[in-house]
Amino acid sequence: MKSDEASQMTGTRKSYLRIVKFWRLYRKNRAAVLGLVVVTGLSILALGAPLVTSFEPLRLVARPFQSPSSQHLMGTDHMGRDLFTDVLYGARTSLQIGFLAATTSVLIGTIVGALAGYYGSYKDEILMRITEVFQVVPRLFLALAAVAIVGPTVWNVIWVIGLTSWPTTARLVRAEFLSLRERPFVEASKGLGAGDIQVIWGEIFPNATSSIVVNSSFEVARAIVLEAGLSFLGLGDANVASWGRTLQEAQSYLQRAWWTSLFPGLFIALTVLGLNLIGDGLNDALNPRLRER
Length: 293
Prior knowledge:
Layout: H1 2-26, H2 30-47, H3 49-52, H4 83-119, H5 121-136, H6 139-150, H7 154-164, H8 167-180, H9 184-191, H10 196-232, H11 243-250, H12 259-286, H13 288-291
Helix pairs in contact: 1-12, 2-4, 2-12, 4-5, 4-7, 4-8, 4-10, 4-12, 6-7, 8-10, 9-10, 10-11, 10-12, 11-12
């Protein structure tokens, strides 16, 4: 019993030290820390939207085109809706779609890339040809067609973005597996009788996770931009607030009410920039080649 407790404490301490080491490396990139602060702050505002604003999203609460004031921090739009409220709830929509769609695409891409890179031969050829089919058609056009068919609900948009965005991850994971599958530790594991599943997910995959984690942050940013584009083109869920639809509605009033396009556009830019900075920081902290410099 004492031996088990000691080993558990040792494992906990090692995990703690790894986290501390990771944070020390990550915080060296000040831009990445700023990106983390921005994204964390936006996430807190989005989750706490009911506590931050007293208005409900998509509700008419005042006269149209009121400029920013103490009562309406970002003004009102052409229908008299509080823009601050719609932007906050739009952050909820964008972050939800971004993270869930990215999770879907990374899972699919990781499985496809791992199988292609590990087995090679005709299996690799088949999987990569399927991947190229998805890459030939621009992602936005493919997503437009799919959402138009299945309907523009939040969950449909999540699935569509996830199912059209996995090829980038698949090619990245495939390259990692091609590089790692010939390493001595893989050969040793096979020599000890480990099966393919154990070798793929127990030996090779843990050594490829750093690249996958870094890519995931960029996938979230791309998913948010794609969702905003779909909403801007009228294929977002009409029952929820959305940055893209707010921008689409504001384009006819750029000269009359500049604030209706400035604030949702600014939030999109800040969120995407923050996620890209986080990705750069993760790359600096997790990439062993960069750590050696």
